[in-house]
Write a structure and sequence with these properties.
By secondary structure, the chain is of the alpha/beta class. It is 44% helix and 22% strand. The strands form 3 sheets. A 5-stranded parallel beta sheet has the order 2-1-3-4-5, with helices on both faces. Strands 6-7-8-9 form a 4-stranded antiparallel beta sheet, with helices on one face. It has a 3-stranded antiparallel beta sheet with strand order 10-12-11.
Length: 234
């Protein structure tokens, strides 16, 4: 999180609580986008990149559970907290089943919430630093994302930042689906038509770089995303 303020998407339909919490988090050095219903929250999430989401459950137009499902479809890893007056065991269990990192019942202590946010963002930051140092063996290729180098039989290709980030995401999902929206949102910032066309160009470039090993291919899963196929014994 160094060098920039972490960005939080706060969806809360209570205008007083929403503004109080937004102001408190901004005073604690966070960049906060406040939306007052689930539909606007989803639009904000699709428009911008966030580091964490705080979702009320009972909101107009789209409830927090539905919004969480939409968010998880795009980014399965983004930290997600529910803030809710719903204290029934069934609601709390549903929240965790949807992939919540925490379920905080109202009223809550803002300072405790702040500590929880800082803890999970630090954990993710530490995991990202570990990921930055990871190298990948893909068939007869060696890929070092930190150096932006793709090597094959003594020849090394230096990748552009976007090529590097896209290949890294494919490698992290090796032999599994990399959702198209997830890649577009993380690398290009949004999943617009023009960004999608740009990503298709970069996929074509990566296919060209990997063409010297016939065991490797980047498969287009129509309408869903891409899969970097690397035989386990390759």
């Amino acid at each position: 999180m160094e060098g920039k303020k972490p960005k939080i998407l706060l969806c809360e339909d209570d205008p007083n609580l929403g503004m109080v919490l937004k102001n408190y988090l901004e005073l604690s050095d966070f960049d906060v986008t406040l939306e007052r219903d689930g539909r606007l929250g989803l639009a904000a999430f699709q428009r911008e990149s966030f580091d964490l989401c705080l979702l009320d459950i009972m909101m107009p137009h789209m409830d927090g559970f539905t919004l969480a499902e939409e968010i998880r479809d795009v980014d399965p890893d983004i930290p997600l907290f529910f803030l809710s007056a719903k204290t029934m065991k069934e609601d709390i269990i549903q929240g965790y089943k949807l992939g919540a990192d925490d379920y905080i019942t109202k009223p809550f202590d803002s300072e405790v919430l702040l500590m929880k946010i800082k803890a999970i963002l630090k954990r993710n930051d530490d995991l990202n630093k570990e990921s930055d140092n990871k190298v990948f063996e893909m068939g007869s290729y060696h890929f070092n994302p930190k150096l932006r180098e793709l090597s094959h039989k003594g020849q090394t290709q230096t990748l552009s930042p976007k090529e590097n980030e896209l290949l890294k995401m494919l490698a992290e999902h090796m032999n599994d689906l990399l959702p198209r929206e997830q890649a577009l949102k993380k690398i290009w910032g949004s999943d617009t038509y023009f960004n999608g066309r740009s990503m298709d160009v970069y996929i074509a470039k990566l296919r060209k770089y990997l063409k010297d090993d016939s065991n490797i291919e980047i498969v287009n899963i129509h309408g869903n995303g891409f899969r970097l196929v690397v035989p386990v014994n390759a």
